[in-house]
Amino acid sequence: TFSEKIFTSNKISDDAMIIIRGIFAKEKNWLFDENLFFAMNTPILKHAFLEVYRTLEFVFVLPRVISLANILSEHGSTIKINKIDFARLCNKELGWKRIERDSLEKIFTEFYSQSESSFTQAISHCSPLTSIALPSPNLTPEEKKKIDERLLSKFTEKYYKLRNQVVHQFWPDESHPCTDDDWRYLITFTLECINYIYNKHLSK
Q1: Which of 62, 55, 15 is nearest to 34 (CA)?
Q2: What SS3 class is residue 97?
Q3: Which DSSP symbol is given to 203?
Q4: Residue 53: exposed, middle, or buried by beta-carbon count in 10 A (0-12, 13-18, 19+)?
Q5: Distances, alpha carbon 19 to alpha carbons 55, 183, 188, 194, in Å
Q6: Measured between alpha carbons, how far is 196 from 97 in angstroms, rounded to an integer?
């Protein structure tokens, strides 16, 4: 309530708005649209990032569900069930909870395999991430795999810390100072990841 930005208009990037419109246009079954509306309406960009992150949270359990479903299938299971419904059953019947930091890395690993350029853009343009070393173009496949694993672990660690400093309101000297442009890049990156997950696993 003491932020000067509360009296200014929110300016998430045009690219972010295009992704949100695209998700609205095609996603009817699993969208928690209020978070994306809040992201577009809040005058403070770090809060917009948090609302977009909450949309990403909805799919955290998918990597584990897919892995479990594949293992069951390999052992002869013929159960046919929607992966989201399966995730809800795991939670209800087994008390199976997501592990947020690890789930993020699993989702980022899947997204990285399809859109390495999205990570390169975020690392190159978002100041909290610029210390992460990008892979050299001259690596062998084995070397690149090891570098990619370290990159994704470091990326997830820093990304999750940025989320936590908004949610838990760290003291200023414990927080990474982020510019509006930093939050815009994080918002756009997160929306790209959400869009990929929806396209692959959720849209009908």
Answers
A1: 55
A2: coil
A3: -
A4: buried
A5: 13, 16, 8, 9
A6: 23
CB atoms closer than 10 angstroms to residue 69: 16
Q: Cα separations (Å) of 40 from 21, 35, 36, 43?
A: 11, 9, 6, 8
Structure tokens at 134: 């990008």
Helices (H), 27-175: 33-41, 45-57, 62-74, 83-94, 100-114, 116-125, 141-167
**Residue type for position 83:** K
- How far apart are alpha carbons 39 and 46 in whole angstroms? 9
Q: In this structure, which amino acid lies at residue 126?
A: C
> Mind listing the pLDDT tens digit of every residue in the chain (204 residues)?
455 655 566 688 999 999 999 888 876 666 666 888 889 888 889 999 999 998 888 777 776 777 777 788 888 877 777 766 777 777 676 666 667 888 899 889 999 999 999 999 999 999 999 999 888 888 888 888 899 999 999 999 999 999 988 887 766 667 778 899 999 999 999 999 999 988 887 665
Contacts of 185 (CB under 8 A, 6+ apart): 121, 122, 125, 126
> What pTM did the predictor assign?
0.79
From the list 132, 152, 167, 170, the residue with the least C-alpha distance to 49 is 167
